[in-house]
Amino acid sequence: MPIYNKLVRDKIPEIIEKSGKSYKKVILSQEDYVKELKKKSMEELQEYLEASTNESSLEELADLLEVVHALADTHGATIDRVEELRKQKAEERGGFQEKVFLIEVEGDER
């Protein structure tokens, strides 16, 4: 039996069961849940980076957005609150639509 040891969507156990297979699962503590959501965000981002078509890219972005929704919830916020913050930052600092790529800043030592 393959071992996954990863956070999965809520209905995955039900889908596995309907396919006639058995599984083992645990319910995570809040601390472990946040840790696994962070790992899941990296997994979904990597899958997005590796996507080769527009459709698969959008599928992976949808998965990543689902993780962002869950992470917002762990911080006591809604995705609407995250969106408010995104809009505020876009208003103050702009977005990424203009494709600006900064080369260097004089006198800025790192």
Roughly how many Å is the radius of gyration? 19 Å
Helical fraction: 55-70%
Average pLDDT over all residues: 96
Biggest beta-sheet profile: none
Q: What string, H for helix and E for strand, traces the elements in order?
A: HHHH
Estimated structural class: mainly alpha
Low-confidence segments = none
Shape: elongated
- The total count of strands amounts to 0
What is the CA-CA span between the terminal residues?
50 Å
Question: In what range is the share of β-strand residues?
Answer: under 5%
Please count the helical segments: 4
Organism: Bacillus spongiae
Protein name: Nucleoside triphosphate pyrophosphohydrolase
Pfam families: PRA-PH
InterPro entries: MSMEG_1276-like_NTP-PPase_dom, PRib-ATP_PPHydrolase-like
Structure description:
Helix 2 packs antiparallel against helix 3. With 110 residues, the protein is an all-alpha fold. It has a domain of 66 residues. It starts with 11 loop residues before the first helix and ends in a 17-residue tail after the last helix. It contains four helices and no strands. InterPro entries: MSMEG_1276-like_NTP-PPase_dom (IPR038735), PRib-ATP_PPHydrolase-like (IPR021130).
